Amino acid sequence: MDAWVRFSAQSQARERLLRAAQYACTLAGAALSRAGNGSGGSSGTLSRLQHLEAHLSLGRKLLRLGGSAEALVGAQRSLHLPDPVLRFCLTLSHLNRALFLACDNVLWAGKTGVLPGLAMDKWSQRSFRYYLFALVVNLSRDAYEIRVLLERAEAARKRGKSPEKRPQLQADGRIQRLRLQLQLQLQLLLQVLRDNPPLLLDLLRNACDLVIPLEKLGLCRSSPGIVGFCGLASSLLSILTILHPWLKLKP
Question: What pTM did the predictor assign?
Fold first, then answer.
């Protein structure tokens, strides 16, 4: 009970719960429309799910009001990181997130009637564009972290094995040597990800989230079911990192 109280006291946690419910509605609506074949009962349930999804989306926008300031503070903080690649990636990610949240706040004002006559499609496209930029930078950061860990693991593996015990890449031609090299690199990658759960979760979450702006911007056509599944999966992973802070990738 105490853990739930601490969890629900955080605005980010509440926003993640609403997000999970929103994309669960998207997934359920996609499954219902596929199975319902236009029947009256299914149409009514689908309409209720769509209305619930819209209300959940509006509630999330309300919880994100003022989030741009927090993102700007994060960008300022990341400027002091010693690693230049992490400094660049995290600062750019925070700045794009701040712009995304600012557009999101404008959309909230338009949908609630505070800004009547707002060009909703234009601001929505702008919002998803900044969201996409932030995710691409986040994935670039994940790739950099993986490369650094792979180099360390490779160096440790070479130090831990004598030359006669290392795998010999002499056998039967160029293609087989390449296959053996790829197999060793894949094993090393799986080991690195298994030994670093925060990095694995961050990579999976960003990869799932990437589907959403790509679909909204028309850059990658996918079904509502895929969007709902990816949004729900990334939301659950985010909730997991809130419940267990050691699973959050730092810095």
Answer: 0.89
